[in-house]
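User: Please fill in residues for this 230-position structure.
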């Protein structure tokens, strides 16, 4: 079994889900008392968000690249950045290590293609929804990306940072998210991509009629598959 290196803490609520899913997948595959081999470096999200908010992506890349290198030195056979938004600096992080970086958007694109989704509604942080680093990975795989319109971009972003990253799930915010999802459906979305690792805390498949793709689950499942490959 290969060792999975996690760069977590962004936020720690979703990092818990990664750890749980990885161990569940390994147990399902191998049975008995088996569990995943995981190295976790949990960063202080306050420091990371402070860099993001003022556009200091080079400094964020340097910080995460250093963490990735330390995980590789500790024995990680692959690296996962346990957040969607910080994949903006994924190329820089990959350049700091010799082991593979398991890219969350590439994993998501594979999952969407497997289900025949060619037009997806994307929810995530403002960075993820509006910047090219994320959407281009999907469009390169033939997937058209729809995002919320107008003030709904701010709504989705605010709930992530002011509520979900703090472990808070407000019923009123969930209702607003479901309204946004319904709007994306009416605009032609064939599925909804939860492009933020916290969004599984507020929306689940039972809440919506469209297929829901949780990037946290997709990312963890791909890592477990690689770790258990012969």
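Assistant: Residues filled in for all 230 positions:
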């Amino acid at each position: 079994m290969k060792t999975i290196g996690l760069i977590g803490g962004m936020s720690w609520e979703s990092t818990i889900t990664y750890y749980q899913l990885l161990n569940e997948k390994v147990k399902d595959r191998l049975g008995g008392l088996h569990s995943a081999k995981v190295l976790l470096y949990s960063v202080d999200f306050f420091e990371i968000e402070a860099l993001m908010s003022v556009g200091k992506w080079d400094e964020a890349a340097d910080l995460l690249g250093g963490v990735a290198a330390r995980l590789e030195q500790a024995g990680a056979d692959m690296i996962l950045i346990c957040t969607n938004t910080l994949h903006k600096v994924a190329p820089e992080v990959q350049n700091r290590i010799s082991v593979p970086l398991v890219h969350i958007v590439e994993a998501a694109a594979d999952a969407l293609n497997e289900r025949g989704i060619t037009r997806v509604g994307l929810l995530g942080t403002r960075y993820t929804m509006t910047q090219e680093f994320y959407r281009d990975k999907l469009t390169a795989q033939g997937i058209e990306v729809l995002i919320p319109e107008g003030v709904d971009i701010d709504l989705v972003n605010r709930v992530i940072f002011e509520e979900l990253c703090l472990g808070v799930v407000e019923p009123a915010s969930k209702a607003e998210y479901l309204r946004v999802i319904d709007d994306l459906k009416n605009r032609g979305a064939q599925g909804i991509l939860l492009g933020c690792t916290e969004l599984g805390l507020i929306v689940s498949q039972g809440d919506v009629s469209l297929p829901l793709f949780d990037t946290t689950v997709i990312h963890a499942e791909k890592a477990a598959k690689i770790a258990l490959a012969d």
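For context: The mean pLDDT is 95.
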